[in-house]
Amino acid sequence: MVKDGAVVDRGVNLAAEYCERLDLAILVSGLGLEVAALVFDMVASGKALHIWSMGDLLHDAIAFLKVCLLDGIVPLLDMDAECELAQVIFNTGLPLHNRLRTLLESALAATNSVPAITAQHALCEEDIVPLVYASMSVMFCSTTLLSNGVDSNLFESIRRSSQALLRSVFELHADQRTWILEEILASLVKLPAQKRAQSVHRVAGGKSV
Length: 209
Hints:
By secondary structure, this protein is mostly helical. It is built from 7 helices and no strands. It starts with a helix and ends in a 19-residue tail after the last helix.
């Protein structure tokens, strides 16, 4: 019993340490997304034109948005609800959930700011590629974690914003359309059968993919 008790205590300590690190990672990512959204707004409004390194700032902001979505938020939300890490997150209660909600709000602000840039500035391929993959990762995210207490409506807003961003890139960059379509179709094929049903993925005009 003493041994079992020690194992339980160690598990509790590891869970607490994991949540502390996750909380810090979410906090830092949220701050980074706020900075990225600020850069996008400055570029869209023309306020950053006097900054000699505007191109580098924009590139770094796009790269950070891609990393946060593709390598951070989406894998976290796609986590199997039955896995141990997901259970740890569920059991932490409001503090971590509120932090995650704030992160999603920052991600929404950032994704909402990008289409204005794509409409006004000719982006290079180095910036288009991460934007496309970031948008697609959100579009095809299963959001398993959100169905267990975290605000799913907020992520749906991010999904719609990402679809608008991808549509903007697709319309404005004809030379990129072929590979974008190939990646979208490849992602659709990989989806479970129930998620390939009509009405799940819609395009402009109300038609289904």
